Amino acid sequence: MEVRASGQVHAEDLDAVISAVLTGSRLLVAIAARSLAAAQDRVTLPQFRMLVVLSAQGETKLVTMAELLNVNSSTAMRMADRLVAAGLIVREVNPHNRRESLMRLRPEGQRLVDEVTARRREEIAAIVSRMTPVQCQALISAMTAFNQAGGEPPVGLPYPLG
Could you tell me the pTM of the whole model? Predict the structure, then answer.
């Protein structure tokens, strides 16, 4: 990859990177869709995102959830209402501030997140197992840099490759 004196990447190299990321994105979206397929009679992809955030964050204010999902509070409220009706989350009035709603996962909601995540991990593991250790290290470096540049916080898990 050629870098100009200004620190910018040449347009041809940038196009190659964008193409590779778009192709990888297509693969990851397909994996996500397949992993969620078994649960689609219960939740939509945006609703599942809410469950994942609750799984990671624990009890969360509705306003905070809307910010984390980058949706309006009214949209987050409707999503939460559907998840409450499905028995996947609990939404209650904050006892410390009655104008706020707090949400948390119910055991069934956590089970759903765990099942979908396990299916994703299995499919990704099958793909990664066909890569060499050097390719795996390069993928870790590239994805870590990509995630950092995009502002995505790390999952917090180590990346042991043995």
Answer: 0.77
